[in-house]
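[step 3/7] fold_predict: job queued, chain A
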Amino acid sequence: MKLSIPGRASATAVVAAAVLLTGGSIAGAAPVAVAAAPDLPVANVKAHLTQLQSIATANGGNRAHGRTGYKASLDYVKAKLDAAGFTTTVQQFTSGGRTGYNLIADWPGGDTGRVVMAGSHLDSVTAGPGINDNGSGSAAVLETALAVARSNYQPTKHLRFAWWGAEELGMVGSRYYVNSLTTANRSKISGYLNFDMIGSPNPGYFVYDDDSAIEKTFKTYFTGIGVATEIETEGDGRSDHAPFKNAGIPVGGLFSGADYIKTSAQAAKWGGTAGKAFDACYHSSCDTSSNINDTALNRNADALAYAVWELSA
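[step 4/7] structure written:
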């Protein structure tokens, strides 16, 4: 994604500082360079959203759990990951008498005893195509995973990406995944990052405050590009980080707002319209590909990639 030159320069400086801080654990040794996160092309993220919109349009207008649009969405994401060299696993479960699916993608290499996960829910509500909720998070997680492959990134920790089914029914897919893990495998996950609605048309910039280290990583990125953030409260416990948190796994994430109303102070800080919902099309038929703020999608997707690189280095 292309930021303004001043913003991009600041972000680069932040990454450079992180390299110096994280390098050279042996006294007297020269710092070891940590690969900087790539600048994700926002056009790539939006191209995934276009595909998800087309899938919804061809399948009754939605991508909901147990519907053909959901399975087609999963097949689209899986094909991209398989072609990029990920090891993918489809996990099947049942909810409401319908079959649901989670998609898990592991990047080969890294310490499998220390796993960094990034995930998003792939399902929509039945009322609409769910392009902001949650095509936006799903597309950004996918593009981050593809950037890992393009750069042949070899982190110290093991990277795992996930797309959850039936979140709209109460985090069913992510809860099924966490509950299926052994105690030993749960302990191997050093952090789970969640991205649910990151392109809201009247956006805010909200950071989860569940784990201080993950929270600091996101805030460092946004400080570097000169964007103020607030603590996320609207979706607290209402998305796929909740099962991980309840299992004692460190969690964090980003959010750009749903049906809460933007205040005058928030509009002064972030732009947009005070007195209007962050996403007036939340859970509605108008949550289409036109229901996305490109700037918010740009910033949040790049923050996602930054956090994945920093936390897995």
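[step 5/7] annotate
Residues 1-33 have pLDDT under 50 and may be disordered.
The CA atoms of residues 121 and 164 lie 4 Å apart.
exit 0
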